[in-house]
Design goal:
It contains 8 helices and 8 strands, in the order βααβαβββαβαβαβαα. By secondary structure, it is an alpha/beta fold. It has a single domain, classed as Rossmann fold. It has a 6-stranded parallel beta sheet, sandwiched between helices. The protein has a two-stranded antiparallel ribbon with strand order 4-5. It is globular and about 50 Å long. GO terms for molecular function: RNA nuclease activity.
Amino acid sequence: MFDPREKIALFIDGANLYSAARSLGFDIDYKRLLSVFGEKGYLLRAYYYTALAEDQEFSTLRPLIDWLDYNGYSVVTKPLKEFYDQSGRRKVKGNMDIELVIDAMELADQVDHIVLFSGDGDFRRLAEALQRKGKKFSVVSTLQTQPPMIADDLRRQSDHFIELADLQAQIGRDPSERNPRPERERVTAERHVHPTA
């Protein structure tokens, strides 16, 4: 599915990838992820998208963002939006889809193969648009959770589906590297659905 001569770009929906990996019981080693895909062709860019809370400076997500930023990823963030639903419950929204789509379309003429790390069905139209430009489109997510983390229409539209569980041995972080966190920090991290670096 990969040609060593092709230019590759990775587009990572941070929250979606974290949720999929967590559902499969492992953490992503982002250094290994770059290395694995760098061996498949010429890795031109790796983008990581996430929304940040206003108080993010004190969050467990900040070390990951800083590490990615210094280690080969182009990190794209925006503030989380807080709102109240009709029953008065506080909700948080941090959708990064439009940023990811714009960046992918802008980079399309410089790459041969786009790899999306997300199972969000909203990206089906992106896959279709990139394929019309003659680009290969692969998606990394999982069918091994109940329900599956990948939308069926996105999987069908993609040129290649890569099962995240099959990558675990290559891009999973060694459990011994996991830092035990105090309960308060673990709750904060789960609220933001991201790991620490």
